[in-house]
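Team,

Forwarding the record for the chain on the shared tracking sheet. I've put the sequence and predicted structure together so nobody has to dig through attachments.
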Amino acid sequence: MNNIEAEKRINRYILYIENDAQNKIKDIDSKIEEEYNMEKGSQTQTQCLAILNHYGNKEKNLDLQLKFAYSQLKSNAKIAILTSKDHSINEILKEVGQKLKKKNKDVEVYKGILEKLILQGMLALLDKNVTLGILKEDKDVIKEVIPKAEQKYKEMTGLETKADVDPKRFLPDSRLGGVEVYGSSDTVKVCNTFEARIELLREKASPYIRLILYGPNSNRTFTD
C-alpha cells in the first residue's frame, strides 16, 4: 500500500468518525430537547395546578366567608326579632302589674284575690298550721280574709287549718301585693305574690301572647 492509498483510507476513517460523532451529537441534542420539553411540560402543569388550587382555595374561603356572614346576619336578625317580641311581652306584663296594683285600691276586689291566693297555698301545703307573709299595709284586710280562706279549705278538704300572719315575714314595700304561705316546718313555701304570679304568667302565656301579637311561627312544627 502506497502513501496515497494510506492517506485515502485514513480520510475515510476520519469522515466515518466525524459522521458518527455528528449523529451522536444529534441524538444527545434530541434527547436533551425531549427531556427539556418533558420537564418544561411537567413544571408548567405543576404551576398551573398550583395556581388553580390557590384560586380554588381562595374561592372556597370566600364562599365560606359569605356563608358565615349570611348566617351571622340571619342570627342577628332573629335575635333582634326575639328581643323585640320579649320587649313587647314585658310591656304587656308590666301593664298587668300596674292593673293589679290599681286593684289593691279596690279593697273588696283585693280581698277576693288574697282569699284565693291564701286558699291555693293552703291546698298546696295541706298543713294544720300555716303562716303568711304579707305587705304591712294589708294587715287589716288580711284579718277579714283568713277566716274565709280557712272555711273554704275545710269545705274542700274536710280538714282544718290555722293561718297566722308572721310579722317577721312582711313583704318589701316595693312589692305589688299578694301573699307568701309557709308550712309549719318553715321548709316549704308557696309564693303567691303578684310578682310570682306574673312570672308564672310569663312562662305559661308567653307562647300564646307571641301567637296573638305576631301570628304563627312558620319555622315551628309544633306549638307550645
